[in-house]
Design brief:
Largest sheet: none
Distance between the termini: 63 Å
Shape: rod-shaped
Order of helices and strands: HHHHHH
Number of domains: 2
Mean pLDDT: 84
Number of helices: 6
Structural class: mainly alpha
Length: 104
């Protein structure tokens, strides 16, 4: 094998590895840009009695907070509850939205 062939092979390998690394970083970046409305503390705080968001408010208070939200926020949250992975991590919240007529 000549030195030119070795250089070509090495360059080809380096370009391939670079392309793979770029593809993996791009995928990670795209995944990180989509966050759930259910993970936004500012949107979720009105539904909980504590700052750690562990204890849900009463059904009456929950409904009042839910109805005070913008339609697009309610739609986004209902959609997120319909996602099996996201909805599972916010099970109690999603159960309450379903009781209020959410399609999850």
């Amino acid at each position: 094998m000549t030195s030119i062939e070795r250089n070509f092979q090495m360059n080809f390998k380096m370009l391939t590895m670079g392309a793979m690394a770029l593809a993996m970083m791009t995928g990670s970046a795209l995944a990180a840009t989509h966050t759930s409305a259910l993970d936004d503390p500012a949107k979720m705080a009105p539904f909980y009695t504590d700052s750690g968001m562990k204890t849900m408010k009463s059904e009456k208070e929950f409904k009042a907070a839910w109805m005070a939200m913008k339609d697009e926020d309610r739609t986004s949250m209902t959609k997120d509850c319909g996602d099996s992975v996201i909805g599972k991590s916010h099970d109690n919240f999603c159960k309450m939205t379903k009781q209020l007529g959410g399609a999850n």
